[in-house]
Amino acid sequence: MIINDIRVPVRYTEEMLHRAIRKASGRKDLRIRSVRILRRSIDARKKPQLFYVMKAAVNEARKKIPSCPYKADPGKHYIVIGAGPAGLFSALTLAEAGASVMLLERGKPVSERAEDVRRFFETGILDPESNVQFGEGGAGTFSDGKLNTLTQDRNGLNARVLQVFFEAGAPEEVLYDARPHIGTDRLPEIVENIRKRIEKAGGSVRFNACVTDFLMENGRLSGVVANGSEKIFCDAAVLAVGHSARDTLARLYELGAEMEQKAFAVGVRMEHLQQEITAWEYGSLDYEELGAAPYKVTAKTDSGRGVYSFCMCPGGQVVNASSEEGHLCVNGMSDSARSGRNANAGIVVQVSPEDYPSSHPLSGIEFQRNLERKAYLAAGGKIPVQLYGDFRENRVSEVFGEILPDMKGGYGFANIREILPESLSFALLEAIPKFGRMIRGFDRDDAVMSAVESRTSSPVRITRNERLQSNISGLYPCGEGAGYAGGIVSAAMDGIRTAEKILENDAVFPAVNAENTIP
After folding, report:
1. Facing residues of 225 across strands?
2. Distance (Å, whole) CA 6 – CA 22
3. Which domains, from first to last, does the chain contain?
4. Residues 162-182: pLDDT tens digits?
5. Three-class SS state of 450
6. Number of neighbours of residue 151 by Cβ within 10 angstroms
7. Kindly report the CA angle at 224 between 222 and 228, in degrees rounded to 5?
8. Helix H or strand E encompassing 460
9. What are the backbone angles phi and psi of residue 148, rounded to the nearest 5°?
10. What is the pLDDT of residues 226-285, one digit of tens each?
């Protein structure tokens, strides 16, 4: 039996939980043998009294999570390009269905990648193929590891994704918390375990294998070229390259892949004292067991632009998330304990194709790169920072206040107003005081801003048909980079969906490339 809207204090006993379950079910005589929490969120509307609102399976096991309903054609051979969430889950789905699949990742295994990222934070020396964006696990590996999604889940894909993460080493809470997270410190091992599961199922994984071109035969994809020379043939390829593989998107455009501009969001990272955020959100600091509190803010400006918090990291750090020489962007991350002194979040403004320099499908990328180039130059290659009060007064900061930056990578003072288009700066200046009325102190003068938050999602979408293929037959655009997801879980869900569509299509259409084999 599944019971919703179970309300208990955050400090509850088993007896209190059972009593709340009986009340929520409307059955005072309900005999409870076992309870498994399926979903849990915090209700802070009556702070300082806090409550959990739960959904639970009572007197029965969790419903069996559906598995892939298809089996692979043994005469087919597949390639998955990119080892982020979309690529990992696409390759895992294909491999566990019995397919011959090779996962190609341009970056390094996560353990080696972590060393490159650490070196970059310490020295500023960037490896363009191994950084916060590229490498095993994708950009999400160096983030808070949030596993929540707003994507509709009519087929149980969300539950499947969370179950895989749990089986790979994530805490059990990811199966039922409303805002589950793993943490940057735990993600590398979990990502590696998912890759090992792919290999155990018969799939192969290759690192330092950048797809530089695509092979065509009679208007259909027949394979790819890795590292400029190696030809690898296939019957279909999943394109799960993430939203930073700009060179790959440019090559596909040259080959005639249909693309369209897409809206996304741009802005800054903002840091506040985590203790103040927690005290405001929970009404007290007397709930240590709940950890650092998250927040979510949103507003609409007079011009109609939406401004909102993105990828909020309680007790986290701002990171230099650059992937191109001479360009700089920022992101946020936090460990599983979320014990850092600051809260940070992207405070971003909606932008649309009307803001881009031209009607070219890749013009949104040009818009991004222009901002990232300005951000790089603003503080001599370091993260440009500015206090909110100085941002408001349009002047370079000279000294920090009570809030000190907590950052991975060097930083220096700059005027962020000179990086962002004027319309976006004005939108932030209008929205942030509104957020200050939602969360006391949000608009304090010494809140630390850093720029530029430009990789919120892809500004381009590779169009796909009802069979989830590009107009290039045999090419399946997938995940964030293709414009169909916006986070770890939604990308992973799209990876599963894409893999299952390939298997479904191949159950109808015969093999066209059976003589080609994956080496």
Report:
1. 213, 231
2. 9
3. 2-58 (no CATH), 77-260+460-508 (3.50.50.60), 263-453 (no CATH)
4. 999 999 999 988 887 878 889
5. strand
6. 16
7. 145
8. strand 460-462
9. -95, 155
10. 999 999 999 999 999 999 999 999 999 999 999 999 999 999 999 999 999 999 988 887
